[in-house]
Amino acid sequence: MRVFVCVLLLFVSLKAEDFITKMEYAKMLYSNPRGIGCILCHGPKGEGMIIAKYKHKGKNMELKAPAINSLSRERFFKALKGSDSVMPKYFLTNDEIEALYFYVTSEVNR
Ligand code: HEC
Asked: What percent of the chain lies above the pLDDT cut of 70?
């Protein structure tokens, strides 16, 4: 009986280690989807940031990635389904986009 309980506990603890929360999954995906992390351009929490500074005809210019933490679901999906100018095209599934949306708009992330 004791052995059985031990084996059961071991099994339970191994299972627990396998388990990642929806939030952890979403964060992982945001940091590294298909090799190019959203995080690199949109910042750690989707707050947007300056990607590059350069000069154009003697003027200082900035290339910015917009904040994506308070967009509507429709706009978020549209941006990831279509191809925009600077952003790489990712070919993410709806579930992946849903997870990303969950991550950047979640309260825990503020
Ligand atoms: C190479 C930099 C870069 C990366 C990487 C990147 N983005 Fe973007 N993103 C941009 C830029 C710049 C724009 C503004 C539109 C444009 O010029 O493409 C944008 C636009 C968007 C928009 C639309 C914003 C709006 O106001 O409608 C969303 C949503 C978005 N990105 C989400 C993501 C997500 C999610 C990822 C990761 C899967 C990601 N982006 C990766 C640079 C990037």
From this structure: 79
